[in-house]
Design goal:
The protein has helices at 11-19, 63-79, 114-130, 153-164, 183-196, 212-222, 245-250, 259-265, and strands at 3-6, 27-29, 48-51, 85-91, 136-142, 144-146, 167-170, 177-178, 180-182, 200-203, 210-211, 227-230. The protein is of the alpha/beta class.
């Protein structure tokens, strides 16, 4: 079954498009094809819809960007003509930054910024829209995502510091634990979930959290041009550690890329 991929020129959408097992039959859509903030209609029936569009928090986190993101998702679901499934890329930020235990899909939602709040509202809108239909809905909550083309977040900052020959300042002594997902794995996960022909709500994480300092030290060993400095100052420290039993149950044969193997695949760190 072929896909219609919204946001096909973004970091994640681009790799989903490139690695899709049905890419010869897929339809790749970007802002050049539709302005998602305006009403539109697409003529693709019985397709798997992948929504990877929107304004990332790293670019803007305001009430206005939240409104625009919600408008995009609402216009998109209204544009569809009898889709087979709808996959929405959400974020683990919906859980907030005050969780002191392993995060599972049952962890209460506590969004702490406009972006995360918008993801919660989008999830609710999607579930409500399709609740009385036969459309399979996949809501995938992503942690930090990295690839060879990372522009934002920790890995984007590392890339910039290398290219500019600058020292990257790491707050909280780099002790915060994070679980990053290698971008290529998302395409594999989506393809496998679509074969199940049912709905899913899943945290997409490796289940192996690593300190920011450990990640930086590993990259520095791979590339001596990378320099960083640990600083004790910074916002309140918090960890992101995930319980991945539900993902493992849904995809028992899934082998996710470890953070160190993923870094090795990113040749700009070499």
């Amino acid at each position: 079954m072929s896909k219609v991929i919204f946001g096909s020129k973004g970091l994640i959408g681009k790799r989903i498009s490139e690695l899709s097992t049905t890419k010869e039959d897929d339809c790749w859509l970007s802002r050049n094809d539709y302005n998602l903030e305006d009403e539109f209609k697409i003529q693709h029936q019985n397709k798997d819809i992948i929504f990877s569009a929107g304004i990332p928090r790293s670019k803007e986190d305001t009430r206005e960007s939240q409104r625009r993101n919600l408008k995009m998702i609402q216009n998109t679901i209204l544009s569809l003509d009898r889709p087979k499934s709808f996959t929405f890329l959400s974020s683990v930020e919906v859980y907030g930054n005050q969780v002191n235990e392993k995060i599972s899909e049952e962890t209460p939602l506590n969004p702490h910024n406009y972006y995360a709040e918008g993801k919660v509202l989008a999830e609710e809108s999607i579930k409500d829209f399709f609740k009385n239909s036969n459309v399979n809905v996949n809501i995938l909550r992503l942690p930090g995502v990295y690839s060879q083309e990372s522009m934002f977040g920790l890995f984007g900052a590392i890339r910039r510091s290398i290219s500019r020959n600058e020292i990257l300042k790491i707050q909280n002594n780099g002790e915060d634990l994070r679980d990053f997902i290698f971008c290529d794995d998302i395409s594999i996960i989506i393809d496998e979930l679509l074969k199940k022909n049912r709905s899913h709500l899943l945290n997409i994480a490796t289940g192996e959290s690593t300190s920011v300092a450990s990640i930086c030290k590993y990259i520095q060993r791979k590339n001596s041009d990378f320099n960083f400095k640990l600083e004790s100052s910074g916002p309140q420290s918090f960890n992101l550690v995930f319980e991945t039993k539900k993902l493992s149950k849904s995809l028992p044969n899934l082998n996710l890329t470890s953070i160190y193997d993923g870094i090795t695949k990113c040749d700009y760190f070499s």
